Amino acid sequence: MPASRLLDVLGPWRRRIRTHRRPLAAACAAASVLVAIHAARPDPGPTATVLVATETLRSGSRLGPGEVEQVAVPTDLAPAEALSSLEEAHGRVVAAPVPDGAVLTRFSVVGPGLLEGYRRGTALVSVRLADPATVTPVRVGDSVDVVGTDPRGSAPPRVLARRAQVAALPAAEGDDRAVLVLAVDATTARTLSGAGVSWHLSVTVVV
């Protein structure tokens, strides 16, 4: 292409560049800052996939679709017993209340196979006792009566379940040590699943 023709083609572009040189310079400077920030950002390092509750999970409820999701977190922040697969959580019974956004571990749900050996129609339900110390003498396989005490003192103590069998004792720290997983009939399971809202619960080992 002749030089005169090339100048004719490039002329309008040169005028546009001169007209907008300040905005173009600002854009280039901003891009340089972004590149520098990205280069200075530390490597997040290895991550692990964990299951996180997408809503508050009630003890004794059965996990359904949409109640947990997979999230990638730094490996050093993932609990050693964290659940990672949606398949291993779906249909499991929640052993203790799990707040929205909390990581689920194997202690958050009742272990698989706990109903083996029980008669058909048996259900598993988790109950949180008012006093963690009352769990100390309880062992898996014990039969217990669950007693509810009105926190306002306006009603006498009430036996909510008789001879419920202890199916599991989640090995967690703090207040979660007061959670018992009981094998009961379906009617008793419905009674106990919401009993902690109105009653302070305790258990008595029976023979």
Structure description:
By secondary structure, this protein is of the alpha+beta class. The protein has helices at about 5-20, 20-40, 85-90, 185-195, 195-200; strands at about 45-55, 70-75, 120-130, 145-150, 160-170, 180-185, 200-205. A hairpin with an 8-residue loop joins β4 (about 145-150) and β5. It is elongated, with a radius of gyration of 30 Å. The mean pLDDT is about 80.
Structural descriptors:
single chain, elongated, 207 residues, alpha+beta, five-stranded antiparallel sheet, two-stranded antiparallel sheet
Helical amount: 25-40%
N-to-C CA distance: 104 Å
Tell me, rounded to a whole number, the average pLDDT: 78
What best-fitting shape do the alpha-carbon axes yield? elongated
Q: Count helical runs.
A: 5
Which regions have little confidence, pLDDT < 50, spanning 5+ residues?
none
Structural class: alpha+beta
**Element-by-element helix/strand order:** HHEEHEEEEHHE
Number of strands: 7
Radius of gyration: 30 Å
What proportion strand?
A: 25-35%
Strand line-up of the largest beta sheet: 3-6-5-4-7
